[in-house]
Design a protein that fits this description.
single chain; alpha/beta
Length: 283
Amino acid sequence: MLRGADMLIVDAQVHIWDADRPDRPWPPGRAAQAQKPYPVTKEMALAAMDEAGINRAVLIPPSWEGDYNDLVLDAARSHPDRFAAMGRLAVEKPESRDLVPRWKAQPGMLGMRHTFHNEHYRHFLTDGTADWFWPAAERAGIPLMVLMPGMLDQLDRIAGRHPGLQLVIDHVGLNVRGKGPKVFEDLAAVCALAKHANVAVKASGMPSLSQEKYPFRDLHPHIRTLVDAFGPRRTFWGTDLTRMPCTYYECITLFTEHLPWLKGEDLEWVMGRGVCEWLGWPL
């Protein structure tokens, strides 16, 4: 049992979702993108966390559901010691502008997560749709997690123009469907963003990038490159568990048992303390 006795372990990304149904419909054509062919509940997440020894998890609504935040907020409110939420906001809708100033007043809500990784959202970064949002989030003090592989130049621009905006790069900034070694060709561009003090990175979902079985030795040098660039206080362990090709325990021990250079206080920052402090989730 890893939880509690050894160190605080916080998963920086876990999805939960409900079924596509008439009273809570998903956007048309998105069902094929779901990571599982069934809903994943807060109870299922808690059971997996308890079995693996996870203290806390940051819950994120998946993009295929649309812009619902009800499930993650319910989980965070009912289990505030275990869950917190990073919600979705439809930046393309005019009515969303009024929601930003009071976003963090929602109990259990720590910030927002935005996805710009596919044809449904990528153009928002370049056609002006999202331009209003970055200064608004900066003024409101809302931490953001962003998924924008292949568009790191846009993230560089946003981070530079809005130094008060806390940004977290999702899934190492890489193509989540890619595999090593080719997928890591973009790692140098990701690490270059560490020059911005307001940018952190989630070392999440990494087992899916490996071409090897556990303990995924082909990932080890790339994890070190990432931590060397951002430092342990701005590198956050996470899983995106419902997409992983391995067990929760293997996701954890990849970092806690197979990286001998990552230990002590540095390991504690990476495994949970860092993301909590970055998002303002009291320890």
